Amino acid sequence: xxxxxxxxxxxxxxxxxxxxxxxxxxxxxxxxxxxxxxxxxxxxxxxxxxxxxxxxxxxxxxxxxxxxxxxxxxxxxxxxxxxxxxxxxxxxxxxxxxxxxxxxxxxxxxxxxxxxxxxxxxxxxxxxxxxxxxxxxxxxxxxxxxxxxxxxxxxxxxxxxxxxxxxxxxxxxxxxxxxxxxxxxxxxxxxxxxxxxxxxxxxxxxxxxxxxxxxxxxxxxxxxxxxxxxxxxxxxxxxxxxxxxxxxxxxxxxxxxxxxxxxxxxxxxxxxxxxxxxxxxxxxxxxxxxxxxxxxxxxxxxxx
Length: 304
Prior knowledge:
- This protein is of the alpha+beta class.
- The chain is 42% helix and 24% strand.
- Helix 4 crosses helix 13 and helix 8 (165-179) packs antiparallel against helix 9.
- The model has no long low-confidence stretch (mean pLDDT 97).
- InterPro entries: Acyl_CoA_acyltransferase, LPG_synthase_C, UCP018688.
């Protein structure tokens, strides 16, 4: 029987373990990626257990714990064990489903179990070539804005390296002052997450790009792998009040740097923020990665 004490925090030392496991069982949602978990662990307390050729994940935010479907070969007994643990130790929403394969399996095993969409946490997936080229009528407005930026500013693009990463840190200090990162708890958590990413950039296995205007950094992106065909933009920061439309420039330049290796780029969820949802939709996603959850009441009714 699984116990909460079997789980241990996700740490930098676990990178190779997750890399090996995810090569065998590729992920699609950004929240399950190693980089996301290790960077945001101060906020979401991501934990895991290796059991019967699978990994089971949990997260705890503001004292509310939820578990995820096993990542590994289909194992009905292990799934039942996870559900039992979720009912014993989880919140009123104790089980979350972050990929279509596990959604299909859960519906197959428990056809009477209601699964509820969590639209705010659907990931947006784009064709990398589309974001890099901005071709066609659908991208006309964004393309004009990027072209205008190129006329207004002499800018250069470079990859983040060991030689310039200290400048990325300095830029983020400026960005946090502009964004007033200490004004809200979630911004404090994001500041800690992105600074952890920069401090451990190469140990985590991240890459990224810089947009400079006159030698000064105006925008950065921090990217990691999801699977062999998809990258994820974990962080994208810019100073739009100083450089109009610069967010659109770092978006397309990041895609240009990725397109030879990754057909798709994941730009994460919109968290239910109306402006963010509008912006992500405007970039014409190829598809979404849905997120579902099961409630305690439904699990008790259907699975016990």
